[in-house]
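If you are new to this repository, start here. Below is one unmodified record pulled from the training split, so you can see the exact layout before writing a loader.
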Amino acid sequence: MATPRFSVIIPAHNEETYLPRLLDSIDEAGMAYVGGTEQIKVIVSDNCSTDMTAAVAASRGCRVASVTRRTIAAARNGGAAIAEGEILCFIDADSAVHPNTFNAVDEAMTSGRYVGGSTGIYLERISPGIALTYLMFLPIPLLFGLDTGLVFCRRQDFREIGGFDDERLYAEDVKFQWMLRRLGKRRGQSLTRLRGVKSLGSTRKFDQYGDWHYFVMAIRALTGFLTGRSNDREIADNYWYKPQR
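And here is the target side for that same chain:
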C-alpha cells in the first residue's frame, strides 16, 4: 500500500468522553483535504486506560497502540513508532481540529521552508483568569515559534531528533519543538505557526481546578522544566497523570 501523507497520533488515557469529538473533527478535515481521506491515518495511543478508550478508537477505524509506560511523551512516541505517514501530527484527545487543517499543513510542508510547526489553539471558554494565563505564555510562541494545538513534522525528522523525551513528565512538547527548531536552523528552515486553522483547546483543567490555579502550578512546573529536577513526580501525578476521569 502507498505511504499515507498524514499519521495523526492521539495520546489518550481514559478519553472515551472526549475522543469522539476529536475523531469527528478529523473526519471532517479529512473530507476537506484535497489529497483525499485515505491519505489520513489515525493512531490512538492508549496509555493504560481503564475505560472504553481503546474500544471507541477501534470502532472508529483507528489503529490502537497500547503504551504501558505512563507518560504523555511515551504515549506520543508509541503512536509514532507504528506510524507510516510522511507527516506526523500530534494532538491531545480533548481537542478538535479545524476543517482546513490538513490542507494548511500540506501546503506549509510542501513549501520546504519549514521543519514543522503547530496550529495554535482557541479556548472553548474564556474568563479573566484563563485570559491572563493565556497572556502569561504568549511570549513563547511570539518569540520562539513554539505553540500548541496540532503539532506536526516529517516522520524522518521526528526520528532524527529522537522523538519526545519520555523521561520528561511534562513540557515534553516544548522540548520537542525546541529540538525541531534547532534542526531546522541548521537547514535554513523554521517552525511555522499556521494561520486560520486553530485547534480547539480544552479548558477542562480550569473547570476542575479553578480559573486562577495555573499561576501557582505553572511556576512550579516551569521551574522543574528549566532545572531538570527529578522530584517533580508529585506535580505531574496530581495534575496530569492521576486526574479524576
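Two things worth knowing about this chain: DSSP finds eleven helices and nine strands in the chain. The chain has one domain: 6-125+145-202.
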